[in-house]
Amino acid sequence: MKLNRLIKYSYPAFVYLFLYFPILIIVVFSFNDTSRSLVWKGFTTQWYTELFRDTNLLSVTGHSLIIGVLAATIATAIGTIAAVSLFRYRFWGKKLLHGLLFVMIVTPEIVMGIALLLLYSALDLPLGFWSLLLAHITLCIPFVTITVYSRITTLDKAIFEAARDLGATDFTIFSKIIIPLLSPSIIAGWLLSFTLSLDDVITSYFVSGPSFSILPLKVYAMVRLGIKPEINALCTLLLILTLLIVISAQFALYKNSGKKHAKK
Amino acid sequence: MQTKSTFKKICVTVIWGWLLLFALVPAALMLITSFLTPDSNDIVSFHLTFGNYTQLFNPAYLRILLQSLYLAFSCTALCLLIGYPFAFIIARSTSKHRSLFLLLVIIPFWTSSLIRTYAIMALIKAKGIINTVLLAVGIVHHPLPMLYTYGAILLGCVYDFLPFMILPLYANIEKLNPELIEAARDLGAGRIRTLCKIILPLTSSGIMAGTLLVFLPAMTMFYIPVLLGGAKNLLLGNLIENQFLAANNWPVGAAISMIITLFMCGMIFFYWRNSLSKDRSNFEELV
Fold this sequence. Notes:
The complex is a heterodimer. Chain A is an all-alpha fold. Chain A has a single domain (55-263), classed as MetI-like fold. Chain A has helices spanning 2-29, 46-53, 55-88, 94-106, 109-123, 129-152, 157-165, 170-199, 202-207, 215-223, 229-263. In chain A, helix 1 packs across helix 11 and helix 8 (170-199) packs antiparallel against helix 11 (229-263). By secondary structure, chain B is mostly helical. Chain B has one domain (58-286): MetI-like fold (Orthogonal Bundle), CATH 1.10.3720.10. Chain B has 14 helices and two strands. Chain B has helices at residues 6-33, 51-54, 59-91, 95-110, 113-124, 129-137, 150-175, 178-186, 191-202, 204-220, 223-229, 236-246, 250-278, 282-285; strands at residues 37-39, 43-45. The longest helix of chain B is centred in the N-terminal third of the chain and has 33 residues, at 59-91. Classes of the chains: A mainly alpha, B mainly alpha. Chains A and B meet through helix 1, helix 3, helix 4, helix 5 and helix 6 of A and helix 1, helix 3, helix 4, helix 5 and helix 7 of B.
């Protein structure tokens, strides 16, 4: 029995160690006062200040933030509309839409990347800001939809009937009832889309042009050159950002489901 | 149900319009391109051919395909072996700790896999932390060559995709009714028998969802082989990248992508057939 408990607790601990140890190494050595070895030579923030002096890096970060905010916002709007439609309406191709969103989630990103590249070349759309933005929106929509859809199914359909009996139009129901009730999962969907956009390498790799680069591609270009303390610092900043976003998204979702249970 | 609603029409038009233009049309273009003839001046010329597909049967491409399948298979198997017991333990831990345990898996799930691959690079390179420790302790006298091997690619894939396996498994195991396990034990089934006859069949859709999320990316990921395998271990993802961005042979690249897409459709078909035969909640299981 004791051995049983030991396994029960040490096995997950081991897996967590596997998941987090390599990342922690990056974080710790981003503060190491030497550019070459992995021997600890003292604490420094030199690598971080160097990042802020890299004007190219700052400009691609700016690009990424613009794309991220726009893509997350538009994808959240469309993804939420999709989730609401799937839940409330009967329409032509509803099952197909359900299936298509599922397929989009499991589609390898490289396939999505080249498919969009083919579309852009057929439309003669130059690779740059617009091609990236449209690709990121498409990438994020299914994730928003499942995040919102998983909450919407917990709503009581009687609310909509009551609202309609009282004379509310579909749009009123959408804006005054559905949006407020779903706002935590909509926020979570936005936050997750933002991280997706900020981290996406593969799709972006195919649909970006030399005129407009974004942060994940810059990181990829840097990482290909090997391990460097500046990259450790950059990765650490991105890790912290992801951590904050994911925790707030989970907090939004968790708070929402907590309220649901309390009401029951 | 109100049938004539402009709002509904707008909603359905927006979502279908977007997906038509940015998902279905690109997929159709990929299919068409895979049957066109490569052209050095104009990317493609409009002569239909099966040549792009027959070309894939040459031994060099077949080897890459088999290598990718082998890697994806080993990676999925390892993720399942590591992830299943783990998901089982955390899904059945006390609910007080469970959300924290889960959060600790969700964080790497959403963390850039590029950064996580970089972390593995830093871990196993010649002057990395593992070799530094091994040298210091005196277990080895020369740094072990770990980076740029097949093992490094496999390690990177397992490390990157493990959370993708754990989350669907967790969602599935959490729904498993513990009374069924108790009933099986009460009726005299041993541990192994309970596992094989009760637990695994009931969580099979979680296993399949996890497999979908691990197998396909592992087969097509192009930067893990580049960063951890050096240039010598080419996989499908690198092949597609090459055809599109270096060799400028889009039709062959599209043909390879079509093969991957067919593969994906096969896996999804099995997954849907399996989950439809039980319940219809396949949508929520992913993520």
